[in-house]
Amino acid sequence: MNIRKFELYLLPFLLLIVTLSILISCHDGRSVVDKKQGWQADEGLVDTLSNKNFSVNYFEDSIPLFELPDPLTVLKGSSVTDAETWNKTSRPAILQLFREFVYGIAPIGKPESMTFDVYDLKKDALAGLSTRKQVRINFSGKLEGPFMDILIYLPDNSESPVPLFLGLNFQGNHTINNDPEISITKSWLPNGRVGVVDNRTTEKARGIAASRWPVEEILKHGYGLATIYYGDIDPDFDDGFLNGVHGAFDQKGPRESNAWGSVSAWAWGLSRAMDYLQTDKDIDGTHIAVIGHSRLGKTSLWAGAQDDRFALVVSNCSGCGGAALSRRKYGETVGIINTSFPHWFCRNFKKYNNKEDELPVDQHMLIALMAPRPVYIASADRDLWADPHGEFLSAYYANPVYKLFGKKGIEVKGMPPLDTPVQDGYIGYHVRSGKHDLTLYDWNNYMDFADKHFR
Ligand code: GCU
């Protein structure tokens, strides 16, 4: 072969190599998977779930090629290289993209007429372990509400203000513990749940969610716990945004396509709880972690992204619209979630049903908005609907932003093995054995992580 002929073959060959390497580097969904060591979905479970519903993808190999938007180059031009520029320009721009295209825009700050009423204060609650408080926050100060009740347990023996975990609950404050004095919400609940009659909960549901809220362990660990029934803020059904805080704060007239959905409303409620917690002398307002499971994990992330008074953020099995990368289209997708729960996100988000590639953001950028604060993301082995791998990858791809602050995010070569938490940096992650749930194992990891950053 003479030289010219050689060049003739070489050029297309080199082009092919370059194209392939670009494609491989774009294929973020698989490039960091260490197939030999890291967690992988159980093949039997993948088959079972796929056979139940062919239209949902559970196969890692069928994930489409995609390119993730780079948080550092979101403002076209050059890449951000320092924390100050990130804070001044990229961060607010990304936050605005999430507001505009995913969750919707909530009213800013604390309403002027909002009131706090500590209607219950009991020392030596829970057999002497805790001081219990119940606080009513009336959002607009009107007698008829809307209002939410915060249930707070603080360690009884603490001499200084305590750090605390704040999280919304699914079925009412009285379901998180058997304490007979926790008041019962009068807000709407879906029928079919234990103790719910005519969309109202009853005494029968007291303590039924206790396994998700290990109050005694939390207190013994030196943390306080504050929780609120999420339906006090906005009832979780598609009511045309007439009830809850939407009804109270929306302007009259047609709704904008970027108006706040329910996740945004719940996150706003968490910030209003924060308004109170910051005034309570028994609580260390600089060390409040926000935690949430599932749809309420989507909510804790969105609350943490918008309100940096949350010093640590925890997402437990939050899945689509939470920690999972949308572009992977694995398990629940943008199209599925917007169809099943049309009230959770803003109307603009529906434009990306089955068009995830066109979204100006993906969920790793939501995690990046927590930087430099610590954030912990957790998945469950059987919870493929929430895409454990996609949740891990969001954590992983937030790394460059933590680096801007000189902080270690999550330094791993691939997804960690089952039940092997990684929490030595500012981004924590684990995938736990078992189903979609919030367990003591999860809490113990969150508390250990908080110990590292709060103590
Ligand atoms: C459904 C929904 C999920 C959500 C979950 C929950 O499964 O599809 O997106 O996280 O409910 O909140 O329990």
Task: Please explain how this structure is put together.
33% of the residues lie in helices and 15% in strands. With 455 residues, it is an alpha/beta fold. The protein has one domain: Rossmann fold. Strands 1-2-3-5-4-6-7-8-9 form a nine-stranded mixed beta sheet, sandwiched between helices. The chain is globular and about 55 Å long. The site of alpha-D-glucopyranuronic acid (GCU) has 8 residues, from helix 11. Residues 294-295, 319-320, 332, 337, 340, 385 line the site of alpha-D-glucopyranuronic acid.
Can you give me a brief rundown of this structure?
The protein is α/β, with parallel strands linked by helices. It has helices at residues 3-26, 28-31, 43-52, 83-103, 125-128, 215-220, 230-233, 244-249, 262-277, 295-306, 334-340, 363-368, 388-396, 399-404, 440-454; strands at 115-124, 130-138, 147-155, 162-169, 224-229, 283-293, 312-316, 375-380, 427-432. The protein has a single domain (115-454), classed as 3-Layer(aba) Sandwich (Rossmann fold).
